Amino acid sequence: MRQLGYKLFFTHRLALLAGAESLRSIREGLLWLLPCLLVSAVFLIFAQCAQALGAPSTLVELLTGLHTRISSIIPLLVAASIGYMLAVQHRLPQLPVAFLCLSHVVIAIYLMRDYPLASATFVLFIAIASPLINVPAMAWLHRRRWTRLVDEGLVGHNLKGTINMVLPGLLTSVVLVCMLQLLLQIHDFAYIQRPMEISRLENPYLNAILLTSTNSLLWFFGIHGTYAMQPLMDVMDQAVALNAADQAAGQPLRFALNSGLLGCFAFIGGSGGSLALVLAILGFSKSRSMRLLALASLGLSLFNVNELLLFGLPIILNPRLLVPFLLVPMVNVCLALTVVQLGWVSPALVSVPFTAPVLLNAYLSTQGDWGAVVLQLVLLGIGALIYMPYVRSIQRQGERSDQVYLKTFDTTFRGLEERGRLFELDPVVASYKQAAQQSLQLARIQQLSEYDFHLEYQPQVAKGIGLCTGCEALIRARDREGKVQSPWELLQWLGQARMMPEVDFWVASQAVRQYLAWSRIGFELPITINISSATLASAEHGQRLLEILARARGQVSVEITEDALVGDALLTQQWIGKLHALGARVYIDDFGTGFSALSYLHQFPVDGIKIDRSFVLAQREPKGAQVLNGLLRFCETLKLKVVVEGVETREQLEFLQSTSELIIQGWYFSKSLPGEQIPGFVSQRARNAMAANED
After folding, report:
1. What string of DSSP letters covers 499-560?
2. Domain ranges across the chain
3. pTM for the whole structure
4. What is the distance of C-alpha 175 from the center of its chain?
5. Which CATH fold topology does 451-694 show?
6. What is the CA radius of gyration of the chain?
């Protein structure tokens, strides 16, 4: 239980982190860029293929230029999409805010036009970070009356919202200009050195591990690693160009580590080498939901796009997949470096986009080296083997989570299959909220599995004659230390887990077993049990319950609450008719506290009602006394059997007056008793009644 509690705490912390609005906005914004990234990649692939086929240079330049132009607007699209998401959060006009965030990036690009290295390093960071600062600032300004240029009654809603964003947008833009101008006065900012010099690539292994692990860690927290590391990727692209120049000059190729090697061999299928994860799921997982998600992700993973896995499985903020997500690309890049340095595979000579298709990207990048294709296939197999134990662990965890055996009820709780949420507004948040809820539910069910459930029976005494005429079966729970727990909260947990039909079947079986045990010693007393609405709502469950109750020959009757009558009226009427055919009676429990109790009395052929304890307590007040008396007179008119619950004092008992026979259930006569004590209680009541009559 301590381990389960720690897991629950950790899951809730992850759910909180995953639900942070800033991370959510970044995830959503970057995910919306996927079509643009794919279009850009297709143009570049076409350009590479056209060049390889000897197409006219004008066509190659056209396709390359289209790719370059689309890539150049990525920071603008990032800022606009993140701004749009934050505008929704802060209840601002979405499109005006998105366009303002886009203009902030334009401002940054213009101000940094004379500082190309600083621009390459910081523009994308500004595109991500500036909406996170500026949109809350605009929201604060938007709430100030002095920033509103238009009153509400003068123009339409859309025009008002747009115009009233002018001053907030202007002020935040001015602040951004001032901040960037100040930063550009700092020499180290304006003339920033590359985070990695090309010369450092001559010692490739450490740099390769740092690059791949950083990329995976960024993605693990929902940040697009490739774009956040763009300055480093520029160095990697430069290495490819230098390799091509070396080959043209007939010199040995100097840079085994380059963007081509990373894209073709480290990130096969996307960040984390996730095509290997797809293959591991398809090859080693029996979870239907995981396999369906893997199949849905397979096509995109062949283009090194893995957002479906990142957000649907999810991988982001999923500690169970962090280790292989870091390890696979590191192993891939180290093995690829070794093979390239041994001369078995050519280094990358052509830059291809990360979204170029798997196998084809290796072939094109090495200018037709089939050994690169074979290397990719080998690395895919190794990656799948690395992911395999983690995939199996997730499946085993899911199987353990899905099944909790409740020894008392002799049943197994199932129903928490891990499902990929592909169509949620934010699959990460939704998935972790669901995981947190499931962990809480599992903790409760696991706790219940250690309880010893049993029935006790509360006697029902006829007020007029003082004899015990029946009893109600009440469920009780005892923990491992022998302490009796309150049943109400436990039943709520079971209801949330949709296990109430199983509980009803167990209660019915135990009550029938107790009645038959009494019969064997020559003692008979009618028993009533409570049945939940979940059991009545299913024809299959209702039939199973009837089969259990048939063994008691009508001596185990049923109490149903008013909410159980709200469902299928025809099915409920048929179910009550079958109970009457067995000889059992049907009572409405907690009468008057539910939905529309009076209408049920003529709609359903019930035998009696149970007046809730709240009415008994309310009789101390004048209006409460009138309501209770009214209920009793009403039942007399309809000739219904009446059981009054919760009678605890002599005063409460004497207040209850009726020309019909009243059945009293409450602590005044007895608390609930174990089954073996009921015959003694019934005998004692009979002796007391006889003595009272003689007097």
Report:
1. -HHHHHHHHHHHHHHHHHHHHHTT----EEEEE-HHHHT-HHHHHHHHHHHGGGTT-EEEEE
2. 198-392, 451-694
3. 0.47
4. 40
5. TIM Barrel (3.20.20)
6. 37
